[in-house]
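Two entries, shown back to back:
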Amino acid sequence: MVESDAIDVSPHYQRRERWSPDSQSKLIESFLLNVPVPPVYLAEDDFGTYSVIDGKQRITAIYRFLRNKLVLSDLTGFGELNDLKFSQLPKSLQNALSIRPYLRVVTLLKQTDPELKYEVFTRLNTGGHPLLAQEIRNALYRGPLNDLLFKLGEQPFLRQQLKISTKRESAFAEMLDVEMPLRFFTFREQWQSFSGNSRGAMDDFMARHRKLSKPDLQKLETQFNSALQNCSNLWGEHAFRRYSAGTFRDQFLASIYDAQMIAVEQLTKAELLNAHKRKSELLTATKKLFQDKRFEESVRASTNTPSRVRYRIDAVTNLLKTI
């Protein structure tokens, strides 16, 4: 059913794949040991098609294994099967695993209240791997704004800086590509009056703006794309990176992302044009800025402290205006 697209394992409110190959292998071993496996919850969309509410990781693990895309690892009860794919198992085990991986299924019919899908998803997914903040927002605040965040999260430069090259990257599994556009919108609106709770602020922004009009959504999209493009043009591969010990660290820092993305938004067209003309001087000045102990602390420790949020954004803004 997965292969024929009868089951959608990735509706927007679903979590992204977070099980490691070891975790997927443990599930396969559970079937070999006849250990009970929790049921899968599906929601009927149209006749004959379903969305997964709970059980995506289990369905994905079974599918990958039976299609020879999973190499077993970290097995304890059947350690001799480590490093093997399904097709490499003894025929007796292949036959057993072709029969045993059946999951009990609970189906919410199409006429069920749509709100119930998301309520069930949130309740069921509070066990196992705890839900991350963006996963909860993705389930609770669905709508046009959430769809826009997914769209903006596909921007190549953002994914490059987050080091998302495949869907296997941790930043993708944690939905950082979706969270970063939301973070920009939230801090852009609130940085001068920020309370110190970034998670709460982003939750609040989603709740208040989840059903924005098309013109308002277009405005947000333009603002984000413009800021991201300017950061790409000004800092290139060093955007959103910390400078330390004579080099730019190869790690995305949300605190520097805040400062640079919002700072470029504060510039007039003339100031922005001047910064573009003096990119070499800007890079030198950026390196020097990290020698400022207060700035360094504002991007490295207790980064949600309101005074540190304001300081780092003001510091980068002033740097761009006076370059």
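entry 2 starts here
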Amino acid sequence: MESLAAVDLGSNSFHMVIARLDHDTLQIVDRIREPVRLAAGLQDDGSLDEPSQARALEALGRFGQRLRDFGAEQVRAVGTNTLRKAKKSRPFLHAASDALGHQIEIIPGREEARLIYLGVSHGVAGAPARRLVVDIGGGSTECIIGDSFDAVAVHSLYMGCVGFTKQFFSDGKISRKRMNNAKLAASLELQPVKAALRKRGWERAIGASGTIRAVADILSEAGWAHGTITAEGLAKLEQAMITAGRLEQLDLPGLDPDRRTVFPGGLAILSAIFDRLAIDEMWVSPTALREGLIYDMVGRIHDEDPRDRTIDMLSTRYSIDQAHADRVQETALGLLGQVADAWDLKSPDDAHALIWAAQLHEIGLAVNYTGHHKHGSYLVASSDLSGFSRDEQLLVATLVRGHRRKLESGYFDALPSELQLDAKRLTVLLRLSVLLNRNRDPENVPIPKLEADDNSLLLTFDREWLEAHPLVHADLEREQKSLKPIGFRLDGFELE
């Protein structure tokens, strides 16, 4: 029986879910919510103010106590819209990871939407297969169309309950004019995706997360709806808020005091979604992003990693020579196995990154042979890579660009500091693997023996093979010069 934990660093609240996996059955055993209001601390220059950082670190410290006995492979922690928008946030992320005791990933908006849909799909068993899922967060709103467990259209919009409340109701006053202005702003955000969503259609609209659950609770308590959200009930709630006039005068049974301060903005967004998408009724899901993270982890445990499917789809789309990519991958893993201990590349994440880069290293040939390493890096960095965090995507793009030609000093500086050394070493292994397979020979390439120091490698080859491949020998000599700018040495090639 294995325990898994998911941590969602949302723009309004931080959430943690702990589940127990027993013979393929998942059982939620604990939930913790901390109203951090991170988005409220996002300044005009993109920095996070000190009070919001302090609230975040205190909350993560409490989460960390609960996760003290969890291994790295049992926990996924992700940051969403506010941390995507925050500038110069690396020092805070380091402190946050230290407080939690686990690494924190920043995920793209489309990946957030995919995970939300995955979580909702597992929480609404028996619902019609074609669904519209809406999740109003603190800093963004996700709208997803899906069939069964697969999201087929995902949209992450830059509007959330914290930002909209701050923009339109900052002094606590609620009026018809302010509500209409907020709804108009939300409608403008929806405009670019409205036609695409309505064209695909859906059998049932489902809402997720705090704002939508709060609306459903209020409508139920008031007798304006029964377990769902209706357009009629939403209009009555909107009028009740305008009649109250101010945030502090809101007396709505079912509204949590922690949510009161961001509720008007969330309601305006939901009302606009009902209006623009012509929704009459919305069901409410008990699950969302953090449950999606848990189910995604279960998929990885059972070798159903969505990242592998993404790489396969890219390989097919760009007509990559699969047999050659597989040979480069096999060589790369053979080299990695020899240096994993010396170079501290024992994490599954290291092997995954090397595999994905080996599979995609020739993706740029779809653009042009000349500079194909640069074209390939751009394609990887700019594509929607389902399942990948922002740093994972950047790492693979960096490896793809670095698989050939000279490397400049500072090449790895764009990566987070904690990834730079691993990236340099993985790049060396990928370059050697590509070099050894340059002939594209379907016969297996003999893997040289490696002896690794911190920034150097000694390679030992089979004498007959190397003498029969003079081009490889010449390439290895050039490679010695190519690696010098990044402070790495190939110390020579012994024969046996």
